[in-house]
Write the structure tokens for this entry.
Amino acid sequence: MEKRIINPWDWQNERSYVQAIEVIKPEGTLYISGQTAIDVDGKSSNGDMRSQLIDTILNLEKVIDEAGYQCNNIVRLNIYTTSSDDFFASFDIFQAWVNKHGIKQASTVLEVKSLFETLKVELEVTVVR
């Protein structure tokens, strides 16, 4: 598999995403449902945005690992949040995770009226191999 990043500008580099990514000859594609801060017993978190973002990332990593894929091959990442202000106040967590894995993904952030139960953030990704 080969990935080609398309960035006509430089400004997106500070925001931890790319404008486009082309995947050539992937061996597999994994479409992951939105992951949230739900524990192993199916209980939704009552925590703040920071703690929910950390738990959401851990759940996402678990699904990726179980499927035999790697975080650095995430090519699409949609972020749904009930508060853009709270999410961007916790953006350092997201950026540290992206940098840790060398993720270069096309990305969209959407503020939504609500998520399931008490959830504040949901990450939906596509990963290639």
